[in-house]
Structures are given as structure tokens and as C-alpha cells.
Amino acid sequence: MTDQSTETQVMNGAWSYEVDEHWIGWVRFDLPDEKVNKFTSAALMELDGLLDQVAADQSVKAVVFVSGKADSFIVGADINELAGITDETDALGKAKAGQRVFDKIAGLKVPTVAVVHGACMGGGTEMVLACDYRLASDDAKTSIGLPEVNLGILPGWGGTQRMPRIVGLAQGITLIMTGKAVVGKKAFKLGLVDGLVAKTFLEEQAGAFVGQLLKGKGRRRVLAKRKKAVGKVMRFVQWLSPTRSLIFNKAEKQVMAKTKGQYPAPLRALSVIRETYGGNITEGLDVEAKAFSELAVTDVSRNLVWLFGATQRAKKAGGGKCVAGVERAAVVGAGVMGGGIAWALSNAGIDIRMKDIAWDAVAKGYAAASKMFGAMVKRRKMTKGEMALGMHRISGTVGFEGFGKVDAVIEAVVEDMEIKKKVLAEVESKVGEDTLVCTNTSSLPVSEMAEALERPENFVGLHFFNPVNRMPLVEVIAGEKTSEETIVRAAALAKKLGKTVVVVRDSVGFLVNRVLLPYVNESVRMFEEGADVERVDRLIEKFGMPMGPLTLADEVGLDVGLKVARVLESAFGDRMHVAGALSEAVESKGVKGKKAGAGFYMWDGKKKRVNETLLKLAKGSGHVSEGELDNSGLTDDQVVDRAVLTMVNEAARCLEEGIVDGAEDVDMAMLMGTGFAPFRGGLLRWADSVGVKQIADRLEGLAEKFGDRFEPAPLIKRLAEGGGTFYGQPSGVMKPAA
Amino acid sequence: MSTSMNNQKRVAIVDGVRTAFGKAGGGLRDVQADDLAVGVVKEVLARTGVDVGQIDEVVFGNVAQPAHAANIARVIALKAGLPKSVPCQTVHRNCASGMQAITTGATQILAGRSDLVLAGGTESMSNIPLLVGKQMTDLLGALMRAKTLGKKLKTWSRFRPGFLAPVIGIKLGLTDVVCGLNMGQTAEVLAREFGVSREEQDAFTLMSHQRAARATEDGLMGEEILPTVVPPKYEKVQAKDEGPRAEQSMAALGKLRPFFDRYAGTVTVGNACPVTDGAGAVLLASEERAKAEGWIVLGYLSNWAYAGLDGSRMGLGPVYATAKLLEQAGGGMDEYELIELNEAFAAQVIANERAFASDEFAKEHLGQDKAVGEIDREKLNVNGGAIALGHPVGATGTRLVITMLKELKRRGANKGLATLCIGGGQGAALSLEAA
Lengths: 738, 435
Hints:
heterodimer, A: alpha/beta, 31 helices, 21 strands, B: alpha/beta, 16 helices
């Protein structure tokens, strides 16, 4: 490094370029003042300029792209810029800008190598794909993916073109359409990267790789390996037109089954690949940019981008960086919930005492936890050995031995106020002064339970949803006497378990159940009036809920649902009046839902058919096919409105009562707690997009026809009159002084 | 030496717990030795409330040493969530391994090298593997070295069906390679030497079952057992020992044919201890430490001795070891209010009773003028023994200590002797005291 002017040049800003003694040029991305690298427009422009300079450098033999961040490569394009896209033309311009820069990389005369360590997503991956060769670290922090479809768009900087070219058609489609990232080792297996390096020796090993490349033999070996990764058979299959069609058709079927056609992005990505695969890349890039620009301005994409931001914000809810300080915990009550919570704790590395009154009950908790670990092993999220360690972190007991050492206790016994009070009082007497005492309740008031306790300030509600391993939400319920510190600790614990936290005020049903149950109840009423079970479910699924309300009732258990519905009715009165068919089904017919094989449907494993015996509770209904009306005389719109607007109406009341801080909390809770249609962007965001005035009108129409329970909530009336939106409400202002 | 040992400090046994003992191939057959022990280790930690970071060492006894868990003590400790910083060793003294763990821990404590030791023993005799014979091993080795197809075929041509006969690991383990007898055969040796009849053996067996069944029924065994929720399905809970039979009878025992000497023998599978799975663990502490922590301890280990003898008469280990213990500690057999003498075989226990009581034996074999001391059956194995409960070889030593201390406490008694015979020709004897 003698001649500074040619060998070492440092750019100001995000990118630097340095040529080492072997005449290898190192291009390093290190976005100032940020923890991770992302492609802002400015960073992209800067790279553009740098590449011209690199191209002009005649002395350099190869160019290597690396990240200057410790454990992160490039996380993709700046999501704020994505959210800021104004129209199709703007979007098209953004796509073309990236494509042009990456084309420059692809056009460099010398070999180019990207060395990936840490997260490499979206635009980062597309940059890497534009290089001639790729290396990845074998570190667990490394993952490479194209998650664009999760934001309702597609890879618009060449991803749809270069990915299938490199890893083959089938794998390329899978990576793009699922948006799933792969670790280094998997990427190597797929041929997505050409070698693995150790983080510690990243530059040395990358340098050695380049050294090999510069010999013709080494280059041929790398390319042969890449070809082998795709496989002879697959190369033949994707070359032959009929079998190639087969790949596309199968992919389309899979994505339709998964998205029910409600998410346009994966389908569009598929059609782009279908149209351009095997063709000229310049033309392909044009098609890609066009598709990107159209998707970027759809409501679905806007909603998903918002959701991404909201999820990030939710991670900070209830105290940002606080650590739970929980190394040991206890779970009391080893039922399905208790076992599930024990799993969640163990999976987070926490040692657990799992207590119940008898060993047979303890065994049920073990079985529940084992099932969840087993599912992870099956999905290769962990090894059998790790599962064994996880199960060993749980130790069963029928006494209180070991409780003196725990940092937190989560009670998950039956939903019965008196039993819970008794158990909690006993638990409190066995644990330390500072131990966090939590109750997992779905609807019982936390403040009332606290009456049984000596230290109510340490007591908090922690409402997990069933099944614990699949439901990402936890409602943290602050009782009247719960201390601020306890809320923060509880929220931190839930986050440590990987959950999204919504802090809610202590009121019957909290948020999610209070909003969701009236919706299920209303659906049962429609069934009573003669609506076809399958039709109701079909229409609501079409709206975007993950499953229909009557299927949901069966999944949850009609008896469990009835219990909560009764609690809500006694608290909120007539508008929550329990549908007669629900109480009769449970109490006269003894129907309990999926777990007992019969509910609104007869269940046989995952298969279901309408339970004919329950039809006696309804105004005689037969099956109707799509588009037909049933005995209820309800139109499709009426079915959807009665179900969905019931939720909006109740959510508005919760907002007004200050159950949560703002509309975004409601939406996040419903998204995470019920799987509310993400492409609609959340319950209240959807209501805002429809217009609160229209919502109010439709509710009034329903009230006229079907009863007072549809009377719009005062907040809705106010917003409708003033032309406001739910999201226009400043958060927290409606919260009564605590 | 005997004087200094006499004034030896005591080591506190803070608490202890064991699994239920399952017959080999029974309820615990799917649980490996390391996994069996994890539950009891965690339970001892929970019951004592000890700060796991303060444990100085983990010592575990295990005989079969499963191939997947080299230094099984370390595997158990880490699976049980002990800090990585805690060192662990596995000890092996055959049938006394579960006692060796305790005395090794005690030695460390008495030497001032440790203050808190987690000790125990574990064995899954259900999971002792069948081995591939030497010829087959050589063949497989050669196959791995053969690079070309031709060489591979040529190597395979050496194969004979006889190579496939498995070597039964457990059978090897229970055979003394030096004297050439298996454990049952050594019991036959003692039956002949001491004239222990088949009927006497069966009567003792019946007593063991009745006592163990009663102790189970009355919940005494429940006090020392941590139920195991059995993986991988977690549907079954093993809360009771599988061995004891309340309905055992002389008639049923009489029907069994001698197993080790089919023609002139007296030892049957009935009057021998069964092959068994189980684990136990205790927390050891220096007496000062236990007092400083304010622990209400289970009891104390005040002295112990190991002795060696002829392998073909290994069953007499208890009398040799106890003689040595008494010589060290001073005092006589009458000081012990309870005795746990491990029941490897009924013939072997009865032979010990006779040897303990015999002046002649003492003169001839122990170099003492007088008999070691008579054993009162009312003090002996009052809650049954291994013939009924089973003998998971690596775990039994730990069980004897736990069982003894719990019974001393129940009776308000003070001193107990726990002694055991050891395959290969050794004996162990521990002097235990109630808290």
C-alpha cells in the first residue's frame, strides 16, 4: 500500500473502497448512524457513483462486497421510503434505479464476490445475486432471503430474474413466493452461495476464495458445484416446457391454498417469473419493475407495510429494553395452557417448576409441552437433543418445593374466581418478596383476584392465547394496584418468550375476547336464524379471517366460549346476550366442539362436516352452495357486516373506555390474537378505510333490522359526525386518569 | 490410623430422593440412565433450595457407562441445568457406585476441597446394549478401509453368519472375568459354603416382598420417590416400584427352577434381585455449612469402609467391610439400630447373617477373635430390599443411604449401617446417623 491515490481510496459516507496488496478491491457498506445497513436512495446513489470508479480501476483483479456492520449484512430497502411511494410512476422509478445500479455490478469486468455475514434481505439479497459469486458465513446470525411478498410487493431489483437463474426454477420460486430466508449452510446446499466461511476468518477465507477464482481451475470447480446443487434432473425438468409448466401450476396451487387469493404479491411474482423465465434479462427486468410498481400502490401492500412498522413498534410496547430478569419460573396448573406456558418458558431457556395437584395432571402438562417441542423438531427448528434439554428444563411437582427460588410464577388453573384466589394466595406465601405473580386468565378481573393477595403490586394478568406456541399475542393486564414496575417486568417476560405484548386495562374480557366473542355470538345468532354454517364461515373467511367464526367456536370449545360469553353478558348486559343456540348446544346437547368431536361441525381429525343434529336449534337450514341464499334470508353483505361490524363497534367502545392506548393497539392485538386479516391492515384501519361515517350508517341499518345491539358506539357517532377516523385519535388521551 | 478416623468429622446429607425402580424392560425402559437421573437431581436442588451456583462438584455413580453419555455425571448435571462452571466426575465401584459417589463427595468435603457436593447413582439396565463381536467388528473395520468394489466384495467374502451373534453386554457386566463366575454362580458358592437351603432363601424372599409391599402401601416409599413422568409420550407416571409383590407366596416361589445351576442349584430368579432401572441423588454438605445455611438435614455420614475379598465369594463383602468399619470407628454391631444390607441374592444375605454371627468365620477370614456381631432380622431391611425392589447397580448405593436415613428419622432412631456386596469381590459399609 504505497501509492495512496490508487490503492486506497476512502469515500465519505456509507460506502468505502479499498484495494489490498493482492489487487483485490474491497467494497464495504457501513451506513453511518445506523445499526444495520439498508438501501436508502442516498446509499444507492452513492454506490452507483462508486461502481463507476471501480469499473474505471484497471489495476484491480476482483471486487469483494462486504458489510461494515458487526452482525448484519444488508437488511434491504428502507421501509420508510417504501411506505412513502406516491404512485406507480414513483414506484417504477425506484425499481429501475435499483436495477440499474445492480446491473452495473453484474457488468463489472472482473470477478465479483459478495461475502454475507448477518441478515441479508430483499434489496441486499438482490445486490448479492448481481455478483458473480457469493460466500456466506456459517454463523446462525446469517440468513439470506427475499421477503418482499410479505410486504405485498415482489423483489423489484432483479430478484425475480437472478434468483431462479442461480438456484434453479423450483427453489427460486419457493424462495420468492414464501419470502422465507435460509441460513448459510442451506444457502450453500441450494447453490445460492458458493462457499461457507467462518465469521472470525471472514476476510482471510474470502481472500483465499478469490485467489482460487483467479485461477481458471478454481472458477470451473465453483461453477460445477453450483450446477450440481440444482441437480441434473431439475435442470432437465425446468428446461422442458411441459414439466416447467407443472412447476408453475403446482406453485400457484400452493399459494392459492395458503392465501385464498387475498394476497396478490406472490401470484404476481409467479406470473412475472413465468412470463420471463428463460428469456432476455433486460426484458425480464422491465416486466419485474412494472409488476413491482403496480403492487407497491395496492391497499394490501400499504397495509402490510404499515403492519410491519406497527409490529416493530409493538416490540417496544410496555417498556423498551427492560430485561425480565427471570431465570427460574413456576407454572401452577398443568393443563393445556399451563403445559403450553411451560413450553414457552422452557423454550426461552427458563427453568420451570410445573405444579399441579396430582401427578396425572402434571403428566398432561408435560405432554402438552412435549407436543410443542415435537412440532419444532418436525419443522427442524430444533434437534431432538435440544428438545430433550428443553423438556428437562421443566420439572414437575405436586408441592411447592423450589418456589422460593423462582423469579416469576404464572398461575394457569381453571377459570374460577374463588379457586384462582385460593391458589394465588397460597402461591404468594411460598415465593419471594419480589417474585412476579401472574395469572393467566382470559376474562376474569385481575383487580378482584388481587384482593386475595398481600402484595397486589407484584400481581399482574398475563393472558396467553391457545395454542400458546402458535398465538403470538399476550395481553398484559394491569390491575388497580399493579405497580408500574410489575407491568414492565411482565411485558419484558412475555417478550422474552417471543410474544407481542399489548398492555390492557383490567376490565371484563380485556380486549381481544371482548371484541371477538360478540362476533362469534352474532354468528351463532345468524345460524339460529337459519344461516348455513358453512356459508357463514365461507363468507367470513373470504373477508379475510383465518377461519370462520363457527369453526373458531369449535376450535376454542363451545363450553369454554359459553363460559366467557356469560361472563361478558353479566358485565355488559343486553348487547352481549348469549345466543340461545350456544347455551342449548352446550347444556342440552352436551356439544363441546372439536376436542369432543362435535360442535357446529362433526370433526374427524382435520376433516369436518356440518353437524346435522345441531340444526334443530336453528330455523331449519340446508346446505347452500356459494352465491345462494339460505333460510335466514340474509344477504352476503349482511352476514359479513353483522359479524365484522360487531367487532368494530365493540373495539370502539374499548378505545373510548381506555382499555388500550389507541387504535394501533387494538389492531395489533386483533391481528396477533385472532389472526385478523393482515391484508386489511387491522380492524380499525380497515374501518377507517371504509369510512367511519359509512360504518355508522351500516350499523344503524343493522340496528333497525336486527336489534339495538348494533347501535353505533358513542365514539363512532362522534367520529362520523366530525368526519374523523379511529387513527386520527391521539393515543392515550381517552385513557381515564389511572 | 483407627484413632484418627474415629474422630472423623461428619458429612451432612441434606436431602435425597430417588426414582421409582422399574423392572428392566418395564415402565422406565425408554428412559436412558442420564435422563433418569436429571429429575431427581432437579428435585434435590428444589427441595433443598440450594443456590446451584454454589455447588462445588457433582459426582455420580454408574456401572454400564452408556456410550452416548461419557462421564455421565457431566451429562446429568448439564441436563439438569447446573451451571457449566460446576465440575463433574463419574465414579465406578461396580454395585457400590451409588455409594462411591457419596463417599467420594464426602472425602472431598472432609479434605476441605469442597463444601457442597451433589452425589448420586443411576442405571438403566434396560438400555445396556448388545455388542457386535470381535470378528464382526474386524470385518466392519476392514470394509470401511476397502476403497474399491473388488476389495469390498473380497472383504465381504470373509463374512460368516456366526459373526452376527451378539455379545450380550449385561451378561458380560454381571460376570467376574477373573474368577469366571457370574454373580448368580457366586451366590450358589455361598449357598453351599453356608448351607443355605432353597426354602430358607425363598422364605427370606417372601419377607422382602411383604415388607416392601407394606412400605409401598403405607406410603413410606412414596416419601423417597419422585414420580417419573415417562417420556417420550408423557402419558404414564411411574410413581411406585415395580418389583414388590404383595401376593408373593412360598408356593409361587417354589415353582421356579434354579437359574444359574439348573441341576443342583438353589438360586432362582425369584430369590435373586431383578435387573432394574432407577436413579437417586443426594446433596452433601460439610456439617458446618449445613448448620450455617440452617438446613434441616436428613442425616449424616459419620464413617465408612471398603474391603476386598475373593471374587467367587463376593457376596460376603458386607461382613468384610463392616468388620473394617467397626475397627476404624470403634464400637460394635449393637450400636446400629437399623441395618440395610443389600439383597443381591437371598442366599447371599443369609450367608452374611451367618458369617456376621460366627466366631469361627471371624478367626479364619477376618483375623479377629470374636464374631463381628449378630444381625437381628427385626433391624434388617425393614422396608424390604433389592430382591423385591430391584437393584439398578449404579443407583442402589444411593438408595440404601436415602432409605436408611428416612427410616431412622421415622423411628426416632439414631444410628444405621448401610452395607453392600460388590461384584469382583469387594464390600462397602457406611455408618449413618440421623439428624
